[in-house]
Inverse folding.
């Protein structure tokens, strides 16, 4: 570039050296002294003619011509001096212009060198920028490939992780179900043990009630047998009493006959005998009364002993019923405690489910928020992309305008360079070019502004894209969290359902146990009532026993006293029997018969009364025993029903226990299968996780490289922009310098033209002076 410029300058200078003397010579030869031609034509012609004719010259004409030529020569010399001063001034201006032109050309050469250097630097920067952009593109492509691999790996990993989470949750749920079943099995075993204990107590109570019922029935049968015997005895005693009464009647008739025989003798004897009879009758009555009182006391003692035995049995039954009631209440208390625990578990399960539901709602709200933010960011990206596209379109338009203006300026410059001189058309073209150059400068400024704006848009777009990527990552995390929470909801709901079912079952058991309470309470009340009644009977019997014992003692004392009276009366009879031996013997014999019959009659009557009393007592005892029988039967039925219900309950519990054992076995099999599935999924997830971690490491490395390359590309973009600015500045300076050189050249040419014209005029004047003022022809 510098060599071409130097050659151009040398050629121009040689051309000027060759052309300028020729121009000056042609000016000296060809340019006439126009202003002197008219004045001196006649004189120069005359002189020449005279000289040409070589004849005699008129002196006056020659003087006049010499005088005129001297004036003309002086004028020409003055004009030449002025012209020479002008030529010298023009030569000085030309020298200054040449010097300025040389400086401008040197500056142009320097600018050419700097422009070449800037272009070389810019080309290098553009190559580096292209390589950096290609590296960035390669890194982005590699990053996209790695992200695609990550997406592929995640696409493979996420379902496996979801399956693993589901399997682990299912395994946990199965473990919980196993624990729940084991707890139910343990509780069921406890219930079975408690029920079997209750069954033993109820069976014992039932056996005791059955024994009491059987004993009471045996007592009733025995009493009925005794009643039958006593009834037979009473009938026999009544028959004997009838016979004794008839014998007494016969003996009394015989006695009346004998008494009719011995009225006088017998009067005292009869009186004494009457006393004896009365005393004996009283004695018999007292003996009967004593025997009856003794029998009554013995019967009452027997009744008291039987009542005490029955009381002991009834107290045992009442104790057993109370124990059964207490056991049932204890079972109800234990069931209520278990119900409280189950209700607490159900409440905890409900709380956990509610908390999980709240978390799902919160996470879904966060997902909606993130989706809204992503949509807004995507909208912002679309808007920013639209702004970037618009700015790039505007940049293309500005670059097209710049190219058009540069083309127009180049065309105007070519037109200006083609015009010599400083004509109006040239000045108009220069003005147009200046306007175009000003427009070009404005367009260049707009291009720089638009490039900066595009860089800002690209930075904003990258930031927005980074924000969208971050939001997408957060959205994915929240969606995974929501999926995990939703997977947790099912086992929580199952746990809540199981807890509620356990609560309902336990409430049913409590209701069943409470439903059994009234029967047991009735049995206890009935047993207590029977005990109280029997205790009342025993108290009454025991209250009656002292009176009977007192009556028996009194009767025995009366019998002893009466026997003494009889003995005394009988001791008085021998003295009375002395006078009436035979009659007395007969009367005595008859009286003895009568006394015997009377005694037999009394004994028979006593036997009848005693038998009737025994029958009535036995009937009362049988009635009392039969009155106790329904209560004992009801107690036995209740106890039997309790035993049957408890046996059914135990059978049901055993069935439930078998079902729990079966469920537990099935659950253990499912747990083993689920654990195998979890292990298989973990074995499948582990390499994918390792691959994903490796890909993430490579992505991090590639992103770091990409960030470095993008930083380098940004630095290169800035350097390219700076180099382009510098090149544009140098190009503008070069163009300005070129325009200045062209203007300087035009100025030099103009000055050279003016100098040539002045030198032509000087040469013409010199020629005219040499011709004596005549114009050379």
């Amino acid at each position: 570039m510098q060599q071409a410029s130097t050659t151009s300058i040398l050629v121009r200078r040689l051309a000027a050296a060759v052309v300028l003397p020729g121009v000056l010579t042609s000016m000296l030869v060809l340019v006439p002294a126009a202003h002197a031609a008219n004045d001196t034509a006649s004189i120069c012609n005359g002189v020449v003619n005279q000289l040409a004719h070589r004849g005699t010259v008129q002196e006056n004409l020659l003087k006049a011509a010499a005088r005129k030529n001297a004036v003309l020569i002086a004028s020409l010399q003055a004009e030449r001096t002025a012209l020479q001063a002008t030529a010298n001034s023009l030569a000085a201006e030309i020298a200054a212009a040449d010097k300025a032109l040389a400086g401008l050309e040197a500056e142009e050469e320097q600018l050419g060198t700097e422009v070449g250097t800037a272009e070389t630097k810019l080309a290098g920067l553009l190559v580096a920028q292209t390589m950096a952009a290609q590296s960035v593109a390669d890194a982005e492509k590699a990053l996209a490939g790695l992200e695609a691999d990550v997406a592929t790996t995640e696409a493979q990993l996420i379902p496996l992780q979801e399956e693993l989470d589901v399997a682990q949750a299912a395994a946990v749920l199965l473990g919980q179900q196993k624990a729940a079943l084991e707890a139910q099995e343990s509780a069921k075993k406890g219930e079975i043990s408690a029920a079997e204990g209750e069954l033993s107590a109820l069976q014992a109570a039932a056996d005791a009630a059955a024994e009491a019922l059987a004993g009471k029935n045996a007592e009733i049968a025995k009493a009925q047998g005794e009643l039958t015997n006593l009834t037979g005895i009473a009938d026999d005693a009544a028959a004997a009493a009838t016979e004794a009464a008839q014998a007494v009647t016969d003996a009394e008739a015989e006695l009346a006959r004998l008494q009719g025989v011995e009225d006088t003798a017998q009067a005292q004897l009869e009186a004494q005998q009457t006393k004896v009879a009365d005393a004996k009758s009283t004695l018999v009555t007292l003996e009967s009364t004593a025997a009856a009182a003794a029998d009554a006391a013995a019967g009452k003692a027997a009744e008291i002993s039987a009542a005490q035995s029955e009381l002991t049995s009834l107290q045992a039954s009442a104790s057993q019923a109370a124990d059964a009631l207490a056991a049932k209440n204890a079972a109800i208390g234990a069931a209520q405690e278990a119900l409280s625990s189950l209700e607490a578990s159900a409440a905890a399960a409900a709380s956990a489910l509610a908390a999980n539901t709240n978390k799902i709602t919160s996470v879904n709200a966060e997902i909606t928020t993130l989706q809204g933010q992503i949509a807004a960011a995507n909208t912002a990206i679309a808007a920013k992309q639209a702004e970037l596209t618009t700015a790039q379109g505007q940049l293309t338009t500005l670059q097209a305008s710049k190219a058009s203006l540069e083309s127009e300026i180049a065309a105007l410059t070519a037109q200006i360079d083609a015009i010599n001189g400083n004509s109006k058309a040239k000045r108009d073209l220069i003005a147009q070019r200046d306007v175009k150059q000003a427009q070009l400068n404005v367009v260049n400024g707009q291009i720089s502004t638009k490039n900066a704006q595009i860089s800002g848009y690209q930075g904003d777009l990258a930031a927005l894209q980074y924000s969208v990527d971050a939001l997408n990552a957060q959205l994915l995390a929240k969606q995974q969290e929501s999926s995990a929470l939703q997977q947790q909801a099912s086992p929580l709901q199952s746990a809540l359902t199981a807890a509620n079912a356990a609560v309902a079952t336990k409430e049913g058991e409590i209701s069943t146990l409470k439903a059994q309470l009234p029967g047991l309470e009735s049995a206890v009340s009935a047993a207590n009532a029977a005990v109280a009644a029997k205790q009342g009977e025993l108290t009454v019997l025991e209250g009656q026993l002292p009176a009977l014992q007192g009556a028996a003692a009194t009767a025995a004392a009366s019998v002893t006293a009466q026997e003494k009276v009889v003995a005394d009366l009988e001791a008085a009879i021998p003295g009375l029997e002395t006078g009436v031996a035979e009659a007395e013997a007969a009367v005595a014999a008859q009286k003895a018969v009568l006394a015997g019959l009377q005694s037999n009659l009394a004994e028979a009557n006593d036997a009848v009364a005693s038998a009737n009393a025994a029958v009535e007592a036995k009937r009362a005892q049988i009635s009392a025993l039969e009155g106790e029988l329904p209560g004992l039967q009801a107690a036995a039925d209740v106890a039997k029903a309790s035993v049957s219900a408890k046996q059914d309950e135990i059978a049901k519990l055993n069935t439930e226990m078998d079902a729990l054992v079966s469920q537990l076995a099935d659950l253990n099999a499912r747990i083993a299968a689920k654990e195998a599935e979890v292990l298989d999924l973990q074995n499948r997830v582990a390499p994918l996780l390792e691959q994903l971690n490796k890909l993430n490491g490579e992505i991090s490395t590639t992103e770091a490289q990409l960030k470095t390359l993008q930083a380098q590309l940004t630095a290169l973009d800035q350097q390219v922009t700076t180099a382009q600015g510098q090149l544009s500045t140098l190009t503008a300076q070069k163009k300005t310098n070129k325009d200045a050189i062209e203007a300087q050249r035009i100025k030099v040419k103009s000055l050279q033209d003016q100098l040539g014209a002045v030198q032509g005029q000087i040469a013409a004047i010199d020629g005219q002076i040499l011709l004596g003022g005549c114009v050379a022809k």
